[in-house]
Every structure is written in C-alpha cells, then in structure tokens.
Specification:
Helix content of chain B: 55-70%
Largest sheet of chain B: none
Structural class of chain A: alpha+beta
Radius of gyration of chain A: 34 Å
Shape of chain B: globular
Largest sheet of chain A: 5 strands, mixed
Helix content of chain A: 25-40%
Oligomer: heterodimer
Strand content of chain B: under 5%
Number of helices of chain A: 24
Number of strands of chain A: 30
Shape of chain A: elongated
Largest interface: A-B, 64 and 49 residues
Distance between the termini of chain A: 149 Å
Radius of gyration of chain B: 27 Å
Structural class of chain B: mainly alpha
Number of helices of chain B: 8
Chain lengths: 757, 187
C-alpha cells in the first residue's frame, strides 16, 4: 500500500515534469515564432504601386472640371470654405484651392502645401502658394495608389506608425476594446471574469474578455486552430509579447495587423489600408465618425462591414461614439456632429488591384525581371509608374461606349477590346486596358491576346522602301496588279484588295494611305521579305519572324502591346526604347532602390521616317483612317493606320500624334468574325480616347535632308507653275525626279483655256 | 525594439514565470539582410572611381574621359534657356542637383521636364550633357540627336552639335567630330 502510494506519487511527479517539459518546448517554439514575426520581417508588406503624379503648372491644358475629377480620384474632399485641411479642396468660380498632401517621391520628399489655381479657357492660368501668395512654376499632386503586389490569397496593408495616426484612434480603440490595456500584463483576469459573468447571465456569448495583446496574438498566428488550444496558445503568446515588447510597440503592431475585412482574395489588414479601402483617404484624414466606424468593426469585421451592412455598422459606430463621449474622449459637439454623418463608405470605383488590373499586371511582369516574388510581396517596396489615371479613364470610357454603340448599331454582341496608350517621348505606358469592362481581372488581352495585325504592319513595308531613297520616293508608282505566289508547301497564295479590284499604277503614298494589298505585296516582294524583317528588328522586334510573304499583309500574331512597341518606334523616329511602366523603386522607408532612367535607342534615318509619317497622315486625310476627324479637330495632323485580319476577325487601329501613340484592338475571344473592319471597329474608340486624352497634332519640322516639292496629281511628277492639281510632298534631299510634269498637255480643260489665251 | 528589462519586482516575477515555462529564449539576430537581388544601382558610369570609356576608344585614359578635347568649352557653360517656365524651373533645379553631385536626381528632374514639354529641345540637351558627364556616350549622343530633331537651328542645336563633336572625338572618330563641329559653326 505505501509502495503503491509512493509509486503513484512518483508517476505524478514524472507526468508533471513531462508536461512542464512539453510546455516549455511549446513555449520556446512560440517564442521564436513571435520574435521572428515581430523583430524580423515584421509584416509581409506588399509592394505598393503608384500612378504618375499630376504636374500642375500655368499653361497646362486642363480644365477645372478635369482637375476636380483627378482630385476626387485621389480622395480629396470638397470643402465649402477656403480654410482647408490636408486632403481638401474648395471651388469658387474659376478658382480652385487645394491642400496638397505631403508625399515621399522617388526623387525626395515633397512637403504638404496649400495652393491656389485660376483657370481660363481650359487652361491653368496661374498657380500660387496660398500662404505666401508667391507664384509657383509648378507643383506636383500626390500620386494615386493603384495597387499592390500581395501573395495569392494574401494579406494587404498600408503600414502606419503610432505617432502618425490620429490620436483618437489608439485612445478610442483602447477605450472600446481593452480599457486596462496599459495596466495588464497581457491577460486581464478581471475582464475575463466579468465577461464570464455577463455571458453566464445572458446564457450565450455576448462579451469577450480578450485584451488587445491577445487579439494581436490571435491575428498574428492563430487563424485556424481549434478553440481550446487556441485560447491556450493565445494566452502564452500574449504573455510573451508583453515580456518582449513595450505597450506602444504592441499597440502599433495591433493597428497594422488587425483584420478588417475581405476584398475578393485580398485580406484587408490594419487601419491604414482599412482607411484607404473603406474611405479612400489616408488614416490621418479620417473624421471622428469614420474612426469610430473602423474601431467598431474590430468586434466583427464581416458583421459590421459598412459597405454590406450599413445599418449594423452605423448602430455599432454609435455605440462606440457613446462610449467615447462617456469616457471624455470626445465632447458633446463632436459627438452629435459624428452621429449626423452617414456611415456608408466612399462609393465609386473598386479599390486595390481591381481598379487597374491590366496595368498592374504589366508592372508585376516588369518587376519580376529584377526582383524575386517574395521580395515583391513582403518588403513593402514603393513602385513609381507611368500610368496616367485621366487617360486610363478615357480609355475605359471610350471602350465601353464605343463597343456598346457598335453592338447596338450592328446587332453584334460579346465584342472584346484591348488598348495600349504610350508616351512618344519616353516610351512609357500611360494607359492599358485588357478587357472591355474596366477593372475586370482575368484574361489580359493587351498583353496576352496575340492576333494577326493585318494592315497595321504595312508602314514597316513602306519604311523599308523609303529607306532606299534613290529607288523609292513617295511618288514612285507601284503596280496594284494581281499577284500569285507559290508557297514553300506547294499551295498558291492569291491575295486580294479589300474592294476586290486592282487599281493599276498607284503612287506609293496612296498605296499606303488606301491600304492596297496588291501594291503592298508587289512592293514587299521586290524589296524582299528579309529586308522587311530587318526593318522590324530596327523597330525593336527581337524574336524570330518567319520570312513568309503573308507577313507583308500582317499575317503575324502580335499582342496589342507588341504592336504598340512597333508604333512607338515609328512615332519617335526609332528613339523609343522598350515600352515600360516603371520609373523608380523605393524601399518602404523611402530610400531609392533603383531608377529606370529614360533610355533611347539609336534613331532610324530621320528623313525616311518623316516621309513615312507624312504618308500615314495622308491615311487619316484621304485614306482608310479618315474617321478619326469625326472626333478629333480637323486642324490636327494625325498619323494612323487601320488593320483588319482575314474574314473580319480582328479590327485594329494604330496611330499617333506628337505626344501619345495608341493601339486599339477589337475582336471576339473565340476568334470568330466580328463583321468589323479596323475603320469601323477600332478607329472610333481610338479617336474618342485620343480626343479625351488631349492628343496633340504632329508638327512638321524643317529638316535639311527633306525637300518639299509641288507634285502634279496626274503624273506624280514635280509640277511647274502652270499645274493646278498639285500636292506638296516631301522628298529625301537629292531624290526629286528630274522629269517635270507636262500639265499643259495633260489637261484638256487647260488646252481649251490655252486656245483663248 | 526589445525593451529594457529592468529589475522591478513585477518583471522579476514575470521573468521567473517565463523562465519556468520557456527556458531562456535565444537572442534575436539583428543583422539586416539586403532583401533585393542586388544593392541599389548607381547609374551607368556614376561610380566613385573614374568612369571607363567605351571599349573601342583608342584613348582610354581617365584624363581623356573627363576632360573635353582641347578647343571646346564645356557646353554647360553656355546659357540656353527653355521658353517654358515650368520646364526652365526644373532645369534650374537639376542644375542645382548637378552642382552638388547628385547626378541621378538631376537626371530624374530633367526627365520630369521632358514629360512636361517633350518637344522642347532644351531638357533633351541638358539630359544629353548629363549623360555625357556620367560617361554614357551612347545615350548622350542619342539624346543630343533627339534634341536636334526638335530644333535643327538655334542655340540648343549649336550646343547639341558641339556635344556630338565631343562624343565623336572621345570615340576616336575624328572625321565625324570635325563634321559635327562644322555643323555647330554653321548655325
């Protein structure tokens, strides 16, 4: 019996020791986890992507209305008086005041400032600093946050520091969630006891006794453990957190970690992102009511979601406000003012990557060349890009309206589109649309839909010819006669003109402007397909191109972005380098990681390019691109080319002015016929978009290697003074034909007139 | 980051409890790891040491790379101004950044100017001069020619041709250098 008792005692001690050992081991594991989470990487912080900032300066062609649109996009709020706080603007007549937010740009921080603008005739007339009245040469707005790169099904957050958040947020949070936060050691037995009593009385769970520290521990690690073990681990973790870290550190971690909802596959973590997501403005600019709404959501982020359940969210917010009033955190005035505010969050566009999915995808692909994915999703890099939200909005609007109108007029349905707009000066992408429905994230047609480019390839053929200036001028006559080509596989290729007829002898520039297939094939075969491919190389095409005659008519699959690359080279005279979307990358602390400087490629022969661009201007003046002037000012000189693939499957338009180039594709996802040509399907969208984007017309420049000559339109020879039907056409210097037009003999009317002279 | 554990009774008690539970925790290693594939890049040629000239250059000495050939004045000494006030403000700012040796920032500022008025020859020229200073002669020439494409005559064109002459001289192409200098004189 004593033996048995001593054995039992020994067993008990042994079990106790084993238990303690296991517990110690478990605690050690947790301790290491929590330290690595806190002291190491801390939060996996997605890379944040910013659009290009809007530069304001006197003379900028921007209406007051357009600027207000931009400010609303940036989450600035209209204010009735000229006493502005950061993030507000006021409007009076043609005057506008803006309290611009501070921002850390890639080239250094810019302090917040309040400016005043005056508008006149669709331009910014003057710009000055409000406080000093001093005129400003220019001023940047803070750029729009357009997305972030978070892991799949991952967390997204905007990091905040405790000393930067509104004072009411931490104090109100403590008041509502954990009043003894500053006194307890991680657990709060009193509150647990009180919660237990309340729950027992109510017969159900109405109150939780968790401290902020416990909630943080839960948010950190314990997403899907079973209830009991979770509570147990949570307690140990809370104790460990308090042992290692100051209250302020725990509080700051909480502010950044707390889960506030779900946006598709993206988890909204922290008050910083919560503020951006629900109210579209930085945390510093939240009102008392909005802070109370967010703090109220901590209790149940889905249940009190102000977007889905505004009624519940408002009730909860009012409870929180009442608590704060009782505790003296806010006064009665602020309380009643806050109660009057609606709870519904900012309406309008989706937030996060859903706003600009096609562009963000391109940014991500470019980044992947330089950075591994775990760096992008975890290090909080700040990515500065070239997206111009105003032009992106123009692209989205033009695509939606254009397709709806075309479908209605022609009884079509299911059309899709993709759009690329880039800057001529530096080859940066300013707008990208991969789906007719803006913000739909899926198949990115701008990047991944490769379709035959049709006649949009033709400028490459004609540029190849014009580079051989001795042999080919714009007035050289080409044969638009039928062609039959024996292909390598034995089949016979017999291309046709779009109208099915042959136009005989046509001058080179008209063959391009009117997009004659036969003349183009005859020209291309005379030049040699290999020569045309050589020109493609000089235009930046790196991959292998099969040397088939059908290339001359655009039987070549390209994505809209790839075609835009070729037109960027044409528009810039060959200078444009690879089209890019990224300008600079910063660390999360604002140190520069890398700048992507403006790089130019070696130019193409300037005179040949100038001749080609003139021919492309004729395409919009007299050829297939005429429709652009239904939207654009007829005084503007625009270069553009339509493209239509076999059986009207793909409709393209590609063109440029002085500042922007754009490519629009319209087609069906299943590659069926659209019944549309480039001119009827893609051109109207392109023109509408470019009008809204503020396309500038091309400017003719004197070039010492280019001679302008009056040419007779019957013989296409240089015209003496007597000729009446003439066109001024550019020639590469020294290549003007010696033969002069014989106008007097060519026109019967003139001969008749001569008799009477 | 880690708090100073002072020896208050509360902390002692707390510490003892944790020691019993968890034993001594390991000291966290604080060595920061550069999270990017490579350290921040400096722009081509912007190193603390002398910049290397182009490989084919027969005159590959430091002196030649930095000193303009005899008979030419550094282009930046000549005043050429943009008519566009915002552009000129940015050019002035970039000159200041260049003066204190922050060439990367000066280049970024000039790119801002180019985005504001992309057909203004002056910021293109200024960027060409900057790339020249950084030893990136290829880009300098492309940028100078781009500037010329927007203004074939006038003070900016003269400076652009002089810069091209300097580039050609450094590349050992005496003929092209002379031609470029003649162009500059003709303007």
């Amino acid at each position: 019996m004593p033996n048995f008792r001593s054995f039992f005692l020994k067993l008990l001690v042994l079990l106790l020791c084993l238990g303690l050992l296991a517990l110690s081991g478990y605690t050690l594991v947790l301790d290491q986890q929590i330290r690595s989470r806190f002291a190491g990487a801390r939060w996996a912080l997605p890379a944040q992507i910013y659009a290009a900032p809007l530069e304001l300066y006197p003379g900028l062609a921007l209406t007051r209305h357009q600027l207000v649109e931009e400010l609303e996009r940036l989450g600035y709020r209209r204010h009735p008086q000229n006493t502005l706080r950061q993030g507000q603007y006021y409007e009076r007549g043609e005057e506008l005041g803006i309290a611009i937010r501070p921002f850390n740009f890639a080239d250094g921080p810019q302090a917040g400032t309040t400016v005043r603008l005056r508008f006149e005739q669709g331009q910014i007339r003057s710009l000055s600093e409000t406080a000093s009245g001093q005129a400003l040469a220019l001023q940047r707005l803070d750029p729009l946050l357009i997305g972030s790169i978070y892991p799949q099904h991952g967390e997204d957050r905007v990091l905040v520091k405790l000393d930067q958040v509104p004072e009411l947020l931490p104090r109100g949070l403590i008041q509502t969630e954990d009043q003894r936060f500053h006194a307890h050691f991680g657990l709060d037995p009193r509150s647990i006891l009180r919660a237990a009593v309340v729950n027992l009385q109510a017969g159900r769970l109405v109150q939780g006794g968790s401290t902020l520290t416990q909630q943080l521990a839960k948010n950190f690690f314990l997403h899907n453990q079973r209830k009991f073990s979770r509570k147990f681990s949570e307690a140990i973790l809370a104790l460990l957190l308090e042992w290692h870290y100051e209250k302020e550190e725990i509080l700051e971690a909480y502010l950044n970690e707390v889960y506030l909802g779900q946006d598709g596959e993206r988890a909204i973590h922290g008050f910083g992102l919560g503020s951006e997501f629900f109210f579209r403005k930085p945390l510093q600019e939240l009102s008392t009511a909005e802070i109370a709404t967010l703090v109220g959501m901590v209790k149940g982020p889905s249940y009190y979601n102000p977007r889905r359940f505004p009624q519940r969210a408002e009730e909860r917010r009012n409870v929180v406000l009442a608590q704060w009033l009782d505790a003296g955190l806010i006064d009665a005035g602020a309380y009643s003012l806050a109660l009057k505010q609606g709870v519904s969050p900012a309406t309008g566009r989706e937030q996060g990557n859903r706003q600009y999915p096609a562009f963000v995808e391109q940014v991500h692909r470019e980044l992947r060349r330089d950075y591994p994915n775990d760096v992008l999703t975890a290090e909080g890099l700040r990515i500065f890009t070239s997206l111009v939200p105003r032009i992106q909005a123009a692209a989205e609007g033009s695509a939606a309206q254009g397709l709806s109108r075309i479908e209605a007029e022609r009884g079509l349905s299911g059309l899709q589109t993709a759009i690329v707009v880039a800057s001529v000066s530096d080859g940066s992408i300013v707008a990208l649309l991969g789906d007719r429905e803006a913000g739909r994230d899926g198949f990115n047609r701008a990047l991944d839909a490769r379709r035959p480019v049709g006649s949009t390839i033709k400028p490459v053929v004609y540029l190849t010819a014009l580079q051989n200036a001795r042999r080919y001028q714009l007035t050289s006559l080409l044969s638009d006669a039928p062609v039959r080509l024996q292909m390598a596989n034995g089949s016979l290729w017999e291309p046709q003109n779009y109208d099915g007829i042959s136009h005989g002898q046509v001058p080179l520039f008209q063959a391009l402007a009117h997009s004659y297939n036969l003349a183009t094939v005859n020209l291309g075969m005379a030049l040699g397909v290999e020569q045309v491919i050589e020109t493609l190389r000089r235009l930046g095409v790196e991959e292998h191109v099969a040397p088939l005659p059908s290339l001359l008519l655009g039987a070549w699959d390209r994505s809209p972005l790839q075609l835009a690359q070729i037109y960027a080279a044409l528009a810039s005279g060959g200078y444009a380098n690879r089209l890019t979307s990224i300008r600079a990358v910063q660390t999360r602390d604002g140190a520069l990681v890398k700048r992507y400087p403006l790089e130019l490629s070696e130019p193409l022969p300037a005179a040949a390019v100038q001749l080609l661009v003139w021919a492309l201007e004729q395409a919009t003046q007299q050829g297939t691109g005429r429709g652009v002037y239904r939207s654009l000012d007829a005084d503007q000189r625009i270069a553009g080319k339509t493209g239509t693939s076999d059986e009207l499957r793909d409709a393209w338009f590609a063109g440029f002015g002085a500042n922007y180039l754009g490519v629009v594709w319209v087609g069906q996802d299943d590659n069926s016929s659209t019944q549309l040509t480039g001119a009827s399907g893609a051109l109207p969208i392109w023109a509408q978009l470019m009008r809204q984007a503020g396309l500038q017309g091309l400017q003719g420049r004197a070039d010492e290697n280019v001679e302008w000559v009056r040419v007779d339109l019957d013989s296409y020879l240089p015209a003496p003074t007597g000729c009446r039907r003439v066109l001024r056409i550019p020639f590469v210097a020294g290549t003007v034909p010696a033969q002069i037009a014989d106008c007097a003999k060519s026109s019967p009317w003139d001969r008749l007139m001569d008799i009477w002279r | 980051m880690t708090k100073q554990n002072s020896l208050t009774p509360r902390n002692l008690l707390f510490g003892a409890g944790l020691l019993l539970l968890g034993g001594c925790a390991t000291v966290p290693s604080a060595a920061p790891i550069w999270p990017y594939p490579e350290p921040p890049q400096q722009e081509y040629g912007q190193t603390s040491g002398p910049a290397a000239g182009p490989d084919e250059s027969p005159q590959r000495t430091e002196d030649v790379v930095y000193a303009p050939p005899p008979g030419t004045s550094p282009p930046s000494q000549m005043a050429v101004k943009s008519n566009h006030p915002a552009v000129q403000a940015l050019i002035d700012q970039s000159e200041g950044e260049r003066a204190i040796g922050d060439l990367d920032r000066a280049a970024a500022t000039l790119e801002r100017a180019i985005r504001i008025a992309s057909n203004d020859p002056v910021p293109w020229l200024k960027l060409a001069e900057l790339r020249f200073e950084l030893g990136n002669l290829i880009q300098a020439e492309n940028l100078a020619r781009r500037s010329l494409s927007f203004a074939a005559s006038g003070p900016s064109a003269r400076l652009a041709w002089r810069l091209i002459a300097d580039i050609k001289a450094l590349q050992g192409d005496a003929v092209a250098a002379r031609q470029a200098r003649e162009k500059a004189e003709q303007i």
